[in-house]
Amino acid sequence: MRVLLTAGPTYEPLDPVRFIGNRSTGKMGYALAEAFAASGADVTLISGPTNLPDPAHPHIRTVRVQTADEMYAAAATEAPAADVWVFAAAVADYRPATVAREKIKKSGYTLTLELVKNVDIAATLGKTKRPEQFSVGFALETEQEEEHALGKLRRKNFDLVVLNSLRDAGAGFGHDTNKVTLLAANGQKTIFELKPKAAVAHDIVQAVLSRLTTHA
Ligand code: CTP
Fold this sequence. Notes:
The protein contains 5 helices and 14 strands. Bound molecules: cytidine-5'-triphosphate.
């Protein structure tokens, strides 16, 4: 089985020294790469900038990228040959419209940045998904969690969506634990307890493997 996994944040440059980014650490995505590799899969981990070392497992190949465009290009290369796609990255939705060649100098009291929309990696690849391929997405929500997560499942052609609610203590960015609910395209819902991210990754891998046997 071949798995394509995106993880970590993306950094969108403003000038040679500054970028727009987010607080994703990549821990959940890296834990998933380890859990898929432990189940016998060959994993391509496409990672935005993180402080984590490349996983040492021989069946994990790590590709380092910075921006959403670079992450998309790397993912699009791998996607056709992968059986399972997992989109765990916190991709920046927008990037600066222009990247200044020189460092932007301080001038007026206010500074307005123009941002343009980035490619939606999961949704764009979702349009190319074949019936036997299986796509897993993440949804980090603060309100109307299930409704929003199921909207993403439909829009991005996911077979399974991993819902994180920021209302749950110990879930989401920066923690070593996570609390997730899995929502499947067939309406199935599984609620898990708060656990270390490695245990959450194991649960997600088991859920994917059990569905793959009946999928397409
Ligand atoms: N995603 C992606 N490319 C993007 C944005 C999101 O591949 N440009 C993927 C994420 O990796 C995740 C899922 O889509 O699996 C949902 O991400 P999220 O940021 O919650 O969704 P958005 O569509 O950006 O919705 P929102 O308006 O809530 O930010």
